[in-house]
Task: inverse folding
């Protein structure tokens, strides 16, 4: 049976990227309006990513923002993409997400990653034990127990947390989490928005090694992609220069404010000190979906035929706040085109 875009739910991954010239307060309020639009357009999920000490990325207090988004929306599932588990005690995560589930029943997702989401110096500031990443499988199991059925004989209980309806996902940009998610029978999300080269292999590994569990009987995979949708291909290419500039800043170790688009990136690549980074930026954004609705539909159909998934999630790095919401409207409209 051929999978079509109408069969695949669309979701959003949000980093609360601060546009150049915007305050954090303005950014977060704009993010809430963006989440309301995603809810109104009946998208499946709105996830927030955990990052620390990254100037220009305002999603460090991830659980706090999840609560704010859930309070401003009605139907969309809200969660983490993800919580970097080595930064946190599993009990604290269980209590936070158990509380969120109690406030917004059946709408909370807990996506878990094993990376620090930051640099080594900041990891130490978070009091992070570098060896905890090696214990990630054990800590996932601990978290599953804390969020699982209440048991009177447990010495340590997550309250709130036990008996919750929080859905646990494993996130990854390599093969490790794909294999672990398959072994545990958990849903899996791959970070194609910054690690495109391993996407096909990781998703195939997950599907091939999947073992049914009480949580999930069949594999359930989601692929995250960079998205820049506009009314025309030319406008989308213009808007996409914002994300290209920000990836370039990332590779140079600079602040990650989202810059306004520019007419042409070529002038930047003609700078001899930057020319060697052009291929790296393009590789980083290989799976980007950039263009008009018709162009986006064509590329997405190609992607889902090559890498079968149950869901798609998108980043949306557009500088203009109104055009960013318009991109969501165009995304929701792709299903009408497909139909």
Result:
């Amino acid at each position: 049976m051929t999978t079509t875009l109408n069969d695949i739910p669309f979701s959003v991954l949000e980093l609360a990227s601060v546009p150049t010239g915007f305050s954090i307060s303005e950014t977060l309020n704009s993010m809430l309006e963006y989440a309301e639009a995603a809810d109104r357009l009946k998208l499946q999920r709105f996830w927030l990513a955990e990052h620390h000490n990254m100037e220009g990325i305002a999603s460090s207090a991830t659980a706090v923002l999840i609560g704010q988004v859930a309070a401003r929306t009605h139907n969309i599932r809200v969660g983490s993409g993800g919580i970097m588990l080595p930064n946190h005690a599993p009990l604290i995560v269980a209590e936070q997400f158990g509380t969120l589930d109690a406030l917004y029943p059946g709408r909370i997702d807990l996506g878990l990653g094993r990376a620090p989401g930051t640099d080594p110096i900041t990891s130490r500031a978070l009091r992070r034990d570098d060896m905890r990443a090696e214990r990630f499988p054990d800590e996932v199991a601990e978290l599953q127990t804390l969020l699982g059925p209440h048991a009177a004989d447990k010495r340590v209980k997550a309250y709130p947390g036990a008996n919750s309806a929080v859905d646990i996902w494993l996130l990854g940009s390599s093969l490790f989490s794909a294999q672990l998610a398959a072994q545990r029978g958990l849903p899996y999300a791959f970070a194609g928005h910054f690690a495109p080269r391993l996407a096909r292999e990781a998703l195939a590994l997950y599907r091939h090694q999947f073992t049914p569990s009480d949580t999930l009987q069949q594999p359930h995979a989601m692929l995250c992609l960079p998205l820049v949708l506009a009314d025309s291909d030319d406008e989308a290419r213009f808007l996409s220069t914002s994300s290209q500039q920000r990836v370039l800043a990332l590779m140079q170790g600079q602040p990650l404010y989202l810059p306004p688009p520019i007419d042409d990136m070529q002038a930047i690549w003609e700078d001899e000190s930057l020319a060697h980074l052009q291929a790296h930026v393009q590789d980083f954004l290989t799976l980007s979906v950039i263009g008009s609705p018709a162009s986006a539909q064509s590329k997405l159909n190609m992607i889902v035929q090559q890498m079968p998934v149950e869901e798609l999630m998108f980043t949306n790095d557009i500088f203009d706040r109104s055009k960013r919401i318009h991109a969501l409207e165009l995304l929701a409209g792709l299903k009408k085109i497909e139909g």
